[in-house]
Amino acid sequence: METPHVSTSDSDIPPEIPEYSGYDELKTALLSLIEQHTMVQTLRLTDYSGNVDQDVRRVVREVMKAPIAAFAVSNISYQSAQILSYYEIQFDISYRRQAQEMDSIREIGSREELSAYLREKMAQFSPTILFSLSDYSKDYAFAELFSQIYYENPELAYGAAVPTVQFFPETGAQRIVEMTVRYGQLADTLHAKSATATEEAQIILDAYSGSLLTVNRIQYFHDTLVSTVTPDRDSAPRLESGELTQKGDPFTVYGALIKKNAVSEGFALAFQQLCMLSDIDCMVVCGKRDGIPYYWNLVLYRGKWSHVDCYESALHPEEPYRGFGLTDEALSETHSWDTTRYPASDSSLLREMLSLDFPTHETEAEQ
Questions:
Q1: Sheet holding 19-20, edge to edge
Q2: Which residues pair with 177 in a beta bridge?
Q3: Is the C or the N end of the chain the one with fewer CB within 10 Å?
C-alpha cells in the first residue's frame, strides 16, 4: 500500500532565522527591525566571541538613542538562549507610533529643502510635520522659518498657532523633528476658505478698470479694503490676553474679503494677496502697536519700499490715506518692528504720487 504524498505549503515551513556574528551586525539588524515596524523577531548569533547578554543589553541601549527608536519605540525587551554552538535572541519591540507615521518622515538635507517641505505641508494645513535631519543646528530656526513662510503666502495663513517642536533624540546632529501645528478648523474647511478668498481677490483684480500705473493699482487695493472691510477692534486684544485661544476668520484673507471684518493681520494679508496677484512686490510686516502684535505691509514702488497700513486708514475714514505710503520715520511714531528683518523705507514717493495726474501707461523705466 502506497502512502499518499502530502505537499507542504510555504506557510508550513518555519521562517529562516537570520544569522549574525558581530556586535555591529546585531545593532544594524535591530535598527532594521524598528524601521520595518517589526514587533517580534528572533535573530541568531553564530561564532560569537563576546559576552552575549552584556552585548545585547548594550545594543538595546545604543539603539534606543537612535532617532527612529527615540521617536517610535517605547520599549525593547529580549530573551536569549544558547543552542549548541549558537545563540538565539528573541526581541520584543513595543511602539508608541504607527507604521504610517514612521513612513511619513521626510529626510531633509538643507534649509532650502526644509523650506520647500514646510510649504508643501502648510498648503495641506497638516497638523503634524515630520522630518529627519543629519546636520541639526540652531540655524534651522524652525519656528521662524514657519512664520516666514506663513506671512509670505497669504493663501496658507489661516489661523495657525506658532508650532511646537520636539526632537528625537533631544541631542546630537542626527534627529527626527516633529512640528505640531494647531489650527482652529479642519483642513477641508480651511482649503475651502482659502480657495473662496483667492477667487474673491481675483474678482477684485479683474474689476479694476483704471490706469495701468502701478501706483494706481496699489491705491485701488488700499481703497477697496478701506472702504469695504470693517476694522475688528476686539479680536487682537482678546487673543493677546488669552481670552481667545485661536486666530479666527478676522485674522485671514477670508475674514477681510468674504466676511468683510478683519483685524490688522487680515487687512495686511488681503492687501498682500491682491498685490501678489498683480505682480507687485509686497510683504507683511509683523510688529507691535499699543503693546500687542500688529501687522501692515511694505510695498515696492519704483525700487523704493513704502509702508501701507490699510487697517489704520480704515480706522480713520476722515483721513482715508492716513496709512498710505509712509516712511520708517513717519510710521515709527506709532508702530514698532524689528527693522533688521525688513527693508528700509526712506521714500515718500508713493504717497506723493497720489496728488499727481497720471498718463494711461507707465513706461518700464517708471515702474
A1: 19-20, 40-46, 86-95, 73-83
A2: 131, 167
A3: N
Distance CA 239, CA 235 (A): 6
Cell of 65: 538613542
SS (H, E, C) 296-326: EEEEEECCEEEEECHHHHHHCCCCCCCCEEE
- Chain centroid offset of residue 32 CA: 30
Joined together, the cell numbers standing for residue 79 give 530573551
> How many beta carbons lie within 10 A of that of residue 154, not counting itself?
28
Q: Each residue of 55-79: b (16+ CB within 10 Å) or e?
A: bbeebbeebbebbbbbbbbeebebe
- Spatial separation of the C-alpha atoms in residues 310 and 360, rounded to whole Å: 25
Pairing of strands 261-262, 230-231: parallel
Q: Which three cell numbers stand for residue 345?
A: 523705507
pLDDT tens by residue, 137-188: 888 889 999 999 999 999 999 999 889 999 999 999 999 999 999 999 999 9
pTM of the model: 0.86
What is the three-class DSSP state of 255?
helix
- Least Cα distance to 332 among 288, 367, 363 occurs for 288
Q: Phi/psi at 146 (nearest 5 deg)?
A: -60, -45
Nearest to 282 by CA among 263, 265, 297: 297
Q: Which residues of 328-342 are buried (b: 16+ CB within 10 A; e: fewer)?
A: beebeeebebeeeeb
Q: What would the pLDDT profile of 256-303 be if each residue is shown by its tens digit?
A: 999 999 999 999 999 999 999 999 999 999 999 988 999 999 999 999
Grid cell locating 60 = 538595546
From the list 213, 201, 239, 226, the residue with the least C-alpha distance to 309 is 226
DSSP state of 133: E
